[in-house]
Amino acid sequence: MKTLVTGGAGFIGSAFIRLLIAETDHRIVNLDKLTYAGNLENLAPVDGSARYRFVHGDICDGPLVESILADERPDAIVHFAAESHVDRSILSPEPVIQTNLRGTFTLLEAARKYKLDRFVHVSTDEVYGSLALPLEATEEFPLNPSSPYSASKAGSDLLARSYFVTYRLPVMITRASNNYGPYQFPEKLIPLMIANAMESRPLPVYGDGMQVRDWLYVDDHCRGILAVLGKGREGEIYNIGGNRSLPNLEVVRKVLALTGRPETLIQYVTDRPGHDRRYALSSQKLMREAGWQPATDFEAGLARTIDWYRANASWVARVRSGEYRTYYEQNYAGR
Ligand code: NAD
Ligand code: TYD
Description:
alpha/beta, Rossmann fold, 3-stranded mixed β-sheet, 43% helix, 17% strand, globular
């Protein structure tokens, strides 16, 4: 099987490629624009594999996408490429709309033309919006996105689904909860808190810190996507949750305990505009249909993640230089 992975130099896409190389016989083409979030260092473990090829380019570039499909003739697309961060989408929505909507459209059009066998569109639980206790979103829940990021993902989900309904393109949509693990760009909650704690810098908690997220270890997510690629039914949506809901403050306290830093580093800052209070997901469908379940206990996964960041301080230093400083200043200064 040959698979075109988009956004494979990012956090989850690179974990997926490392998994495919280690545990399957897939051949892989990785199309990635190498934005601030794309990093070929994440793929060092597969570099040199005869089953892996990298193409530097934009998913919005129709002729490029078509030429890859014409040359490589992949059986499937697994589509990760996105502008993936809510805070950046609030600061500048334009690239989010371009990549997440236009880019997905470009891939769907090419997949339709070349009659691909499988198209897995990787999405998020954020499309369901904030849910009051004790609700858990099933795949039938209404879409109620709050940020430019989640709205763009909801829009791309609907577009992807329309290609199944209208053209019978074999599309499957996955909606995962918050991921964490090695190689995550330190703009998201867990790696940002680990990186700041390691340097004894303040840990910025938005609002009262009682917002709830469901934490999923990245490798469990990738195994879920692989299960959908292999066993998912065409036209279906599959939630992939970590089954571990925690308020942010509790996550931050665990990071401080595991890094041996004091809770006085916690700094409450102005809340995110439109901040969703609670996400919660039911993954019963994927469990039932594919026998998948999240295997990683949160405390064990967090400890493993912290160990990775400790052992890869030079990776952290490199990704936090340059553009990251400008972003950090823009998002946090005066908050
Ligand atoms: P990431 O920001 O770490 O990586 C995104 C990758 O996409 C980068 O390598 C970047 O260079 C690439 N990219 C961006 N724009 C591109 C373009 N126009 N053309 C080609 N490549 C482009 O993101 P991530 O956290 O790995 O998320 C991957 C996917 O999973 C996204 O679709 C995201 O919406 C979804 N998702 C993420 C989470 C999470 O917790 N991180 C949870 C659920 C779903
Ligand atoms: P994030 O990792 O950005 O993921 P998402 O917004 O997609 O869920 O944020 C996770 C939670 O952590 C969210 O409720 C916002 C909060 N948060 C902070 O309190 N401080 C921060 O510096 C960041 C980045 C996030």
